[in-house]
Design a protein that fits this description.
The complex is a heterodimer of chains A (122) and B (110).
Chain A (H helix, E strand, L loop, with lengths): L2 E5 L2 E3 L5 E8 L8 E6 L5 E7 L6 E3 L7 E6 L4 E6 L8 E8 L9 E4 L3 E5 L2
Parallel strand pairs in A: 2-11
Antiparallel strand pairs in A: 1-3, 3-8, 4-5, 4-9, 5-6, 7-8, 9-10, 9-11
Chain B lengths: L3 E4 L2 E4 L5 E11 L4 E6 L6 E5 L3 E2 L7 E14 L9 E9 L2 E5 L3 E5 L1
Parallel strand pairs in B: 2-10
Antiparallel strand pairs in B: 1-3, 3-7, 4-5, 4-8, 5-6, 8-9, 8-10
The chains are: A mainly beta (122), B mainly beta (110).
Chain lengths: 122, 110
């Protein structure tokens, strides 16, 4: 079964750091770009970051550029999001998602995890 | 940066009726780069349509997508009870990788 499982969310104060993980299984992880998408409670979807299959090409939303870093470990079939200088507006469910098309750096997202909640509050 | 504007914000319909959702891009995009998702409360989004009109695996044929250039539509031919949800359009770029989502359309029971 193709599956993505996020972990690492929690409650933390503004300015702190957090690392999210996404464990992938059931597909050839190193063939696909991966993405992070977030959703503030009651709001719409917001793209956060993407990383291509070999990790050499990444992209970030302007709202997180310079604060968040995406990475992957193909040997461990895992995706990561390092989040620094967290702000209240970063509060959201964070989903990892798999690209629909192999090799392409971005595309439709055909597999999503269930999300992990990050709450930034003093 | 391409902005996707979805309309209406909310669509109130009855089961069995036809739903037509709109997604307008701030500049022309390739049909290959337009997708639609469905999201139900407490669940992750689910891919419905890719390439503007291709149905994803397991998606019933009452869902169809169309359009080109800056105007795209998602049509649900006859609403089933399980179709009441929020729908998002999405476009993407590959160099560097970048995704954009529309603001969503909620399809609610009238």
């Amino acid at each position: 079964e193709v599956q993505l499982v996020e972990s690492g969310g929690g409650l933390l104060q503004p300015g702190r750091s957090l690392r999210l993980s996404c464990a992938a299984s059931g597909f050839n992880f190193d063939d696909y770009a991966m993405h992070w998408v977030r959703q503030a409670p009651g709001k719409g979807l917001e793209w956060v970051s993407s990383i291509n299959w070999n990790g050499k090409s990444t992209g970030y939303a302007e709202s997180v550029k310079g604060r968040f870093t995406v990475s992957r470990d193909n040997a461990k079939t895992s995706l990561y999001l390092e989040m620094n200088s967290l702000r209240a507006e970063d509060t959201a469910f964070y989903y990892c998602a798999k690209n629909n098309v192999a090799v392409a750096a971005a595309g439709p997202l055909n597999i999503w995890g269930q999300g992990t909640l990050v709450t930034v509050s003093s | 940066e391409i902005v996707l504007t979805q309309s209406p914000g909310t669509l109130s319909l009855r089961p069995g009726e036809r739903a037509t959702l709109s997604c307008r891009a701030s500049q022309s995009i390739s049909v290959d780069y337009l997708a639609w998702y469905q999201q139900k409360p407490g669940q992750a989004p689910r891919l419905l349509i890719y390439g503007a009109s291709g149905r994803a695996t397991g998606i019933p044929d009452r869902f169809s997508g169309g359009g080109s250039g800056t105007d795209f539509t998602l049509t649900i031919s006859r609403l089933e009870p399980e179709d009441f949800a929020v729908y998002y359009c999405q476009q993407f770029a590959t160099s560097p990788p970048r995704l954009t989502f529309g603001g969503g359309t909620k399809v609610e029971i009238k």
